[in-house]
Amino acid sequence: MTQQNAAFEEQFGGIPAVWLRFNQFEAAVIPSVGANLVAFRDTEEGFRYLREPDLEHMDEFMAAPAVYGIPILSPPNRYEDGHFPWNGEVYQLPVNEPATGNHLHGFLHDAEWKVEGYGSNELESYVLLSQEVKEGHVFYKYLPFTFTVTLRYSLSSLGLQQQLNVRNNGKERMPNLFAFHTAISVPFAPESQASDYTAKITIGQRRELNERSLPTGQFQPLTPEEEQLKGEGVSPFFAAMDNHYTAEPQNGRNYMELTDHRTGDKLVYDVGTSYKHWMIWNNNMAGGFFCPEPQMNLVNAPNVQGIPAEEIGLIGLEPGELFEQTSRLYPIKPQK
Hints:
Mean pLDDT: 97
Radius of gyration: 19 Å
């Protein structure tokens, strides 16, 4: 193992973290707060690809971990009145978004995860984190299913890979609904401005949302800027966005591509085709970051009638079944 390639425990802003280093790349995961991967950097270029917590104000991160790094959401997004119908039962989730009267974002993004192990070799530096949901777990309190989730993050010459695994340890079919509230830094290059950037995302149709931010079942026509978003690219701050889209893979890939037109560098977030929806949120155009969020299921999917479950991502796992999806964040350097 070279000095460049390493996996080790060291604090991030005073909180225990696992750090990964491989060649020019560096990443940090905070196990105690949702296994959130809070940093992914190119140390040679000085690029910081994710919105990182402020090391001097970690209380802000602790208060709102879902708007930094790569938080895992399950069940993701909103559920009307907290109702979650499944297998003939209606489970009641806490209404934690009073403004809409909905449940928001589930139970894993602020939970403490177990570090199963970490290491480094000539091929990669990696960490494996797990969450076992069973009686006594806050998730189980509201959705009484037993399962294990693992997140494996690895750095290699190909960038950052994320591997999500879910295994149903119970005796009945369980909901398998996941998303990542990924916060991408704009700009990621220290000398660039947000105005130097355009984003392309493999969106399809835009779903209409009501005043409670729940789908109405209707689609809305894409604006010219949204057509650019799925085409040649557009500023991720062209309008205030908290928008819900179908995913429409292009050339077999479901991805976001962010381009710095000053340097010519690109960041690609290839999320995999299990994520059939995108949420795109840009914090009311406040700048500094935006969230292209890959999501398996339609918002409020268990309460939606008349649309095939497969189409809206309302999928389940049978006892003993295993679900896996791999995503990757990686840079593309400008051609010399």
